[in-house]
Amino acid sequence: MENKLYIMDNLKFLQNYKDQKFDIVYIDPPYNTNNKFKYEDKNKNWYFDIEKRINLLKNIIYSTTPVIVSISEDSLFYMYEILKRKFKYVFEPFVWQTKNCYNQNKISNISAICHEYILIACDKKIKTNEEIYYLNKEYQEEEINKIIELKKKRYNLKIKLKQNLKEYKTVVIDGKEIVIIPETEYIISKEIDINESYKKHLYQKRTVQKGHGSFRYYQTIQRIPNFNKNTLYFIKNVKDKYNLNGKFLLGNNYFQSISNYIKIKIPSFLGYYQPGIKNFQTAKPIKLMERILTAFKQNNQQLLLDLYGGSGNVIIAANNTGFKTISVEKGLINEEFPGKFIIENLQKHKINFKVINDKN
Length: 360
Ligand SMILES: C[S@@+](CC[C@H](N)C(=O)[O-])C[C@H]1O[C@@H](n2cnc3c(N)ncnc32)[C@H](O)[C@@H]1O
Description:
Elements (H helix, E strand, L loop, with lengths): L3 E4 L2 H7 L7 E4 L18 H12 L9 E6 H14 L2 E2 L3 E4 L17 E8 L14 H18 L2 E5 L8 E4 L2 E6 L4 E4 L12 E6 L7 H8 L9 E5 L9 E5 L2 E5 L28 H11 L6 E4 L6 H9 L2 E6 L10 H9 L5 E4 L3
Parallel strand pairs: 1-16, 1-17, 2-3, 2-15, 15-16
Antiparallel strand pairs: 3-6, 4-6, 5-6, 7-10, 7-11, 8-9, 9-12, 11-14, 12-13, 13-14
Bound molecules: S-adenosylmethionine (SAM).
C-alpha cells in the first residue's frame, strides 16, 4: 500500500472509488467564509455539496470509521446538522486556537474569531482517547516550557546601569521627565546575569516606527539639547507593560519591558495555537493533526482518506502517525499545473506518493 494523491474533484473520486474501505476519514472543506484564499471559498450550494459527498462516503467506510471534520464557527452549526443526520454519533467538538488574535494587555474593542472546531462522527460508539479533548497537565507544562524557552531566546536583551536611575541627570521635554544615561553608564547585552540588570527586567528591543505609539517618544527625545543616538534615555511615567513605569529609548530603538514574567501565550486547555504554513493560511498544523490521528488510531487502522488535500499537511501528519493516505485535491487557483502546491510540499517533506490525475 502506498500514499496516493488524486488530483481531481473529490465528488468524482467518491463516485468512482471501489478499492479498500477507509479506517479513518478527514474532511477539511472550504468553510464558505467568503475569504480570498488560494481556492474558492464561496459556494451557495455549500450545504448540499457537503451532504452529497457524505452520502457517497458512507459506501466506502466501515461503521467504526471515525469521520473527522474541521470547521469554522460560521459553518459549525450546518456541519453539525449534516453529521447528526448521517451518523449515529457526533462527539463533543474539539476546539483549537488558530491564531493569537488578541492583545493580552489590552481590552480590545473588536471581537475576532480565533478558534476552529473539529467534529468527529461515527456510526459506532468508538473508544476515544480523552486526551484529545483536554490537554493533560503534563502535556500543558511541557508546551508552556517550550514556549518560555522560545520567548527567552527572542526577548533576551538586558540593560545594566552602573548606578541607580536616580543618580542620573534629568530634563523635562513636552512635560515628560527624561533621565539621561550616557554611553559609558549602561550596558545592553544578552550576557548580563539577569539578577544584576536593572530591576531584573528583560527587554525586547524594538524599532520605533512612524504610526507606532513610541514614535512620539522618539520625537520627544530628539528635542533634548545635544541629543545623542548612543545616549540611553529613560522617559519616566510612561505606561510600561510590567511596572517599570517608563520606557528606555536608544537612537530609534526602544526597549519594551517583558519583565521576569516573560510574556507567554499559555496554550488554551482546549487546544493550542500553531500557525499554518506560508502561503496557505488554512493549512492545518501538523502537530495538531498528529494528535487527533493518534487519539483515534487503533491497531488495525491503517488507511486514511483526506478528502480536501490543500497543502498536504494532513498527509505528512498521517505519515508520522503510521497511516497510509489517499488524498484528493482538485488544485488551487492560478497554479502552473493542478496540484503543484501540494505535490511540492509533499516532496519537500520527503513523502512518497503516487499522483493520479483526472486523465489516468
Ligand atoms: C481548507 S483547505 C484544506 C487544507 C488542508 N487540510 C491542509 O491542511 O492544508 C480546502 C482545500 O480543498 C480543495 N477543494 C475544494 N473543493 C474541492 C473538491 N471539490 N475536490 C477536491 N478538493 C477540493 C481546495 O482547493 C483547498 O485546497
